[in-house]
Amino acid sequence: MRYTNGQTVEMSHELLTRQLYNIYCDESCHLENDGYKAMVLGGVWCIQYKIPDVSKRIREIKAKHGLAPGFEVKWHKVSASKAGFYLELIDFFFDDDDLHFRGLIIPDKGLLDHEKFNQSHDDFYYKMYFDLLKVILDPQSSYNIYLDIKDTRSQRKVELLQSVLRNSQYDYDKQIVRKVQQIRSHEVELLQVTDLLIGALSYVHRGLTGNAGKLSLVNRIRERSKYSLKNSTLVKESKMNLFVWEPKQ
């Protein structure tokens, strides 16, 4: 219960019994004219009370491989010399039943026709974020959604995404989507895992093969997930959920 103006107010039983999850989201090659063909959005989610233990375990894996606790896991840092560390991190993700991932891939941004659909590329970007998250959200649970901060101008769009997600779930009392907030990736281990997984998807869909360390990670993700990473999975897939977007004809 809580107290307001000297009066005891009973908290909603529904709110008290909801499971609370954190979703950590990031994107790769999302800019309209960045010269990269494929665009990838992704999110790792975990029940909130398990996150301290998960973060501690990631730091232990770093220490095992001689890396500082503050070492930031990034796809662009992957190399053959650190492949052992990254492979163990991938195995940890697949071995921990509390960790889940959903990725959304636009294989060819050149096929986008924003004028036809009366939208900007930014509009499309947030529509894709909505498509990414709507499959994760369970109306019987609650979520904090964190996005990797990009620039100071994106806060308004984050607020819009929060509003759209709440409206889509009829979440007018804000019990499902607690908040959508920007955070800095170097401060949050699970956001770094998201970066690693979407980097691997981008590598696959850009048809790259030249980095032995990155290729070993892609192959380990394929082995552990049992997916090629090139096609959509079933919507109900809960560990490595993928959606390959196709433009409307």
Structure description:
The chain starts with a strand and ends in a 5-residue tail after the last strand. It is of the alpha/beta class and 249 residues long. The radius of gyration is 19 Å and the shape is globular. Helix 6 (189-205) crosses helix 7. Mean pLDDT is 86; it is low at 1-11. The strands form 2 sheets. The protein has a 6-stranded mixed β-sheet with strand order 7-6-3-4-5-8, sandwiched between helices. The chain contains 7 helices and 8 strands. It has helices spanning 13-17, 51-64, 83-95, 121-134, 155-168, 189-205, 212-225; strands at residues 2-4, 7-9, 20-28, 39-47, 100-106, 142-148, 177-183, 240-244. It has one domain (23-244): Nucleotidyltransferase, domain 5 (2-Layer Sandwich), CATH 3.30.420.
Compile the SSE list and pairings.
Blueprint (H helix, E strand, L loop, with lengths): L1 E3 L2 E3 L3 H5 L2 E9 L10 E9 L3 H14 L18 H13 L4 E7 L14 H14 L7 E7 L6 H14 L8 E7 L5 H17 L6 H14 L14 E5 L5
Parallel strand pairs: 3-6, 5-8, 6-7
Antiparallel strand pairs: 1-2, 3-4, 4-5
Helix share bin:
25-40%
Radius of gyration: 19 Å
Output the structural class: alpha/beta
Supply the CATH architecture: 2-Layer Sandwich
* Spans where pLDDT lies below 50 across 5 or more residues: 1-11
Total tally of structural domains:
1
Question: CATH fold name, please?
Answer: Nucleotidyltransferase, domain 5
Tell me the total number of β-strands. Answer: 8
3D shape:
globular
If helices are DSSP runs of H or I spanning 4 or more residues, what is the number of helices?
7
Could you tell me the strand content as a percent range?
A: 15-25%
Any idea of the CATH class? Alpha Beta
Order of helices and strands: EEHEEHHEHEHEHHE
Superfamily (CATH H level) name: Ribonuclease H-like superfamily/Ribonuclease H
Mean of pLDDT: 86
Physical arrangement of strands within the biggest beta sheet: 7-6-3-4-5-8
Largest sheet: 6 strands, mixed
How many angstroms separate the termini? Answer: 54 Å
